[in-house]
Backbone:
């Protein structure tokens, strides 16, 4: 065999090896809500040198994201505590692998600025828009329960965020039980005011949830651990660089920069591993839903958590000057 033939053979082998390597490159299918995770990762430049690809799927609310998880259309996604319960109650093969703790103020019942409503007690006989099974749905029930009312004392209208916003503006509903960034947007545009905020009513917990199938694949499980590490670092960066992050978030979600900043700044988000306190809080929410007939049987939430994922310590997450 001539030297030229050997070189051509070697080149062809290298080309085929490169094509095989490219074909085998792992892809994580990640579900996001209003740019939540993606904005932090992009703003912090935390997606550089990824050893895998990310296919982003953005959802307007938790319900369609939950459906995508249940169907296996995505590998993982961010979802609130209440929607996660409905996913698990349906028997979906999904587990929460980390929790994003926050100040729950922005999970709130909104009313029009001129509405003659001043407390949850004034909602008796009123129409409340929210998403079925959402954190807004949970908040509405908790707010009513706190003043001795129930869902039977109001008219719940299950709408997506866009339709609910319009319904509140045109008077089709009297209140909207929602979450950030819609709360911040309503306040800053003067279209809504907070009647009841989520402090003391909502856990403020959101979860990174993954399908059992993805967790059973060693390569995807390792990629999810890497993704979580990057996400926690990006969130720490965003908290320290609010101006830069707010610009990126506003561009992704199509909200004014001031609203993007306000909703993030006051949430004080922080990623943590699953611990006993988180499981207990989720169990309380599950028991509340069961007591109100939203979940048919009592749900033991403990098996629906994966507790073996780790996170870097605070010192490693800190952005170096």
Residues:
């Amino acid at each position: 065999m001539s030297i030229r033939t050997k070189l051509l053979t070697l080149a062809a082998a290298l080309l085929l090896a490169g094509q095989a390597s490219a074909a085998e490159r792992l892809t994580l299918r990640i579900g996001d809500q209003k740019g939540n995770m993606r904005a932090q990762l992009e703003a912090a430049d935390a997606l550089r040198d990824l050893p895998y690809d990310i296919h982003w799927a953005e959802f307007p609310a938790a319900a369609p994201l939950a459906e995508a998880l249940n169907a296996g259309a995505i590998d993982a996604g961010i979802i609130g505590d209440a929607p996660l319960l409905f996913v698990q109650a349906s028997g979906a093969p999904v587990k929460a692998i980390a929790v994003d703790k926050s100040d729950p103020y922005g999970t709130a019942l909104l009313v029009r600025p001129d509405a003659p409503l001043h407390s949850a007690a004034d909602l008796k006989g009123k129409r409340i828009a929210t998403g079925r099974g959402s954190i807004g749905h949970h908040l509405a029930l908790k707010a009513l329960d706190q003043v001795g009312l129930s869902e039977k004392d109001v008219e719940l209208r299950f709408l997506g965020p866009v339709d609910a916003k319009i319904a509140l503006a045109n008077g089709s509903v009297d209140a909207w039980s929602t979450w950030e960034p819609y709360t911040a947007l309503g306040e800053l545009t003067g279209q809504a005011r907070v009647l009841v905020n989520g402090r003391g009513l909502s856990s403020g917990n959101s979860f990174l949830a993954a399908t059992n199938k993805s967790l059973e694949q060693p390569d995807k499980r390792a990629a999810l651990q890497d993704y979580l590490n990057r996400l926690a670092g990006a969130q720490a960066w965003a908290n320290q660089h609010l101006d830069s992050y707010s610009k990126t978030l506003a561009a992704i979600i199509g909200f004014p920069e001031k609203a993007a900043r306000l909703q993030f700044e006051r949430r004080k988000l922080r990623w943590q591993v699953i611990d006993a306190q988180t499981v207990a809080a989720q169990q309380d929410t599950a028991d509340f839903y069961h007591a109100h007939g939203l979940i048919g049987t009592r749900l033991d939430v403990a098996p629906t958590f994966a507790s073996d994922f780790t996170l870097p310590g605070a010192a490693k997450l800190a952005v170096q000057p």
